[in-house]
Specification:
Elements (H helix, E strand, L loop, with lengths): L1 H17 L7 E4 L1 H17 L11 E2 L2 E5 L5 E3 L5 E3 L3
Parallel strand pairs: 1-3
Antiparallel strand pairs: 1-4, 2-3, 4-5
Length: 86
Amino acid sequence: MSSLYESMTGALREHWKTHNNAYPQRFVLTASAHAALVENRELVVKTMNYSNRSELGEDFLGVPVVVSDAGNVMVAADGTRVSLSI
């Protein structure tokens, strides 16, 4: 999870720098990557005693998350697909 999280936050940070703080269109994750992300985010919510959020897998830091076999990518504001290295 940490490499997925780091890859997603790094891609988002670079996107903000490149696109004047605009948010990307979405993250696209494979089913297994999405499941790992949700599982680990649920663990953080539980161990940090946060109130449980049902939308844990629906967005990542405000960016929609879509599950697809198309790979693990971020779709930039301009439609460019940026590969997430996990």
